[in-house]
Amino acid sequence: MTSRDLILGRIRAALGSAGLPDERPPARDYLTSHAPDDPAALLDLLHHNLADYRARVHRCTPAELPARIAGLLVDHGTRTVALPPDLPADWLTAVTAERLVDDGTLTAARLDAVDSVVTGCALAIAETGTIVLDTGPGQGRRLLTLVPDHHVCVVRAPEQVVASVPLGLARLDPASLRPQTWISGPSATSDIELDRVEGVHGPRALDVLLVTGATPA
């Protein structure tokens, strides 16, 4: 008998003949998305909502990706870039900044001195302009993307783009128990006077690369 069974048993005994309400799961027959089915329109919606949250959004092909990553790091003045250990090596062929590969021992204090971080993602949600990280392949630990001031995140379209939060949740594995980070734009907060301050709870600058097209041979 689990704790849940024990508690419900006590409630049933206390209620007597009144019994408990129907415990069957509620019907979830609501509409799971309001976004268009067309992949190009869905990508446009993601682009629009990411930009609305003040993320800087860029589109490129797989062949252009290494140069675009390198260019974004140069534009930010990056001298040191943190990387997940399993980030695809071909993404970094044009990067000239010092690379700091996370071996699991990097501390928040060490990462605070790093200019940028480059990662992939688990998926992106078009309706909300949200990037989801679940510490899966190419993403690294949560610490890696919460401390550096600048985050460059790569989204592969269309396979990593979903229309809505319900469809995104269906793609994630709750049994993995991996921590998740849901990102809607650069980190920002406002005080009671509604003065916006960026970079309080995460990166002050977010560059999202939407990679479309066939992978080059």
Walkthrough of the structure:
With 217 residues, the chain is of the alpha/beta class. The chain has one domain (34-211): NagB/RpiA/CoA transferase-like (Rossmann fold). The protein is 25% helix and 23% strand. The chain has helices spanning 3-15, 39-52, 65-76, 108-111, 142-146, 165-171, and strands at residues 56-60, 80-83, 98-101, 116-119, 123-125, 130-133, 150-156, 161-162, 181-183, 188-190, 196-198, 205-211. The chain has a 6-stranded parallel sheet with strand order 1-12-7-4-2-3, with helices on both faces. Strands 8-5-6-9 form a 4-stranded mixed sheet.
User: Order of strands across the widest beta sheet?
Assistant: 1-12-7-4-2-3
Oligomer: single chain
Q: Might you state the CATH topology name?
A: Rossmann fold
Q: Output the number of helix runs.
A: 6
Low-confidence runs = none
How many individual domains?
A: 1
CATH class: Alpha Beta
- The CATH architecture is 3-Layer(aba) Sandwich
Secondary-structure-derived class: alpha/beta
Spatial shape: globular
Q: Determine Rg (CA atoms, Å).
A: 21 Å
On the 0-100 scale, what is the average pLDDT?
89
- N-to-C SSE series? HHEHEEHEEEHEEHEEEE
So, the CATH homologous superfamily?
A: NagB/RpiA/CoA transferase-like
Secondary structure layout:
Layout: H1 3-15, H2 39-52, E1 56-60, H3 65-76, E2 80-83, E3 98-101, H4 108-111, E4 116-119, E5 123-125, E6 130-133, H5 142-146, E7 150-156, E8 161-162, H6 165-171, E9 181-183, E10 188-190, E11 196-198, E12 205-211
Parallel strand pairs: 1-12, 2-3, 2-4, 4-7, 5-8, 7-12
Antiparallel strand pairs: 5-6, 6-9, 10-11
